[in-house]
Specification:
2 copies of one chain form a homodimer.
Chain A lengths: L17 H13 L3 E2 H11 L5 H14 L2 E6 L3 E6 L6 E5 L5 E4 L2 H14 L1 E14 H6 L2
Parallel strand pairs in A: 4-6
Antiparallel strand pairs in A: 1-3, 2-3, 4-5
Helix pairs in contact in A: 1-2, 2-3
Chain B binds a DNA duplex through helix 3.
DNA sequence: ATAGGTGCAAATGGTTTGCGAAAAC
DNA sequence: GTTTTCGCAAACCATTTGCACCTAT
């Protein structure tokens, strides 16, 4: 188990406890797009004593230290994912709920341009697309 | 006062009651980016008997009939605005909360391209940018 | 011994719902 | 006279917080 404490953006160092490690593992395994409730569900499977409060506290901590990203997909769900290299965005199917990740230089360029045009320093860019995938589009009729 | 009932995407026609009219007026006057709480606050000023439930029910109705758009800005706030011509997106300042609207052909193009590449029929595209405006960027130090 | 982390239960805040009364058709 | 809408209060759900206990320095 990791023993050291870390210091990123966060003011104070923090300990990697067994609970936090478990939650990190779950986020790692999930890869992407997992919400708090599901994190709790899976954590609870492996450690029935863990509390939902701990899950929320950990997610907040990880978010603040920059370990994970928080995103909003679809209607209202709030999802978390381990931070990765390379911006990517999401396309969510209203039919089957499938989530497709998209990336590419155009998004970056677009953000850069908007930044310049509006004299803004952009710290977070989120493009969220909803629609229907090929299969669901056909089923619609 | 409008008296007719309307029929857009929504299955059943619905009446334009005084409450709904009031809420529509408020949305109209606000122009954009107003959340449920603020709609209620203003509605309550003019008609102290109106209930928050009516506000939520009306917002949902308007959204479903396509009269207004629901968007998520910044952290978690859910905002509403009368539907307008021309896509536009939002840039929100984490410092002062100011919201800048941006538009332009590049966003459209980007969405079109992603649509093609992923064989998706996109029904809703939302680009949400967070950052710091010029003034707040300087104040930061 | 002290600071930080956890579990529990209660609090919070935003949104929705059940229901009887009122209004619209 | 039916159907829809409203106001109210209660319910709901996700998230946060206060607090006593626990754990690792």
């Amino acid at each position: 188990m990791l023993r050291m404490s870390r210091n990123l953006n966060y003011a104070k160092p923090w300990a990697v406890t067994t609970q936090r490690e478990l939650i990190l593992d779950i986020l790692q395994e999930a890869g992407a797009h997992i919400d708090a409730k599901e994190v709790y569900r899976r954590a609870n499977e492996r450690d029935p004593r863990i509390s939902i409060a701990t899950v929320y506290r950990s997610l907040r901590l990880f978010k603040e230290t920059g370990l994970i990203d928080e995103r909003r997909l679809g209607q209202m769900r709030c999802c978390y994912e381990i931070k990765r290299r390379g911006e990517h965005h999401h396309l969510i199917c209203r039919g089957c709920g499938r989530i497709v990740e998209v990336e590419g230089p155009l998004i970056q360029q677009l953000v850069m341009q908007l930044q310049r045009e509006n004299r803004f320093h952009v710290t977070k860019a989120e493009l969220c697309l909803e629609g229907y995938c090929e299969a669901c589009e056909e089923n619609q009729r």
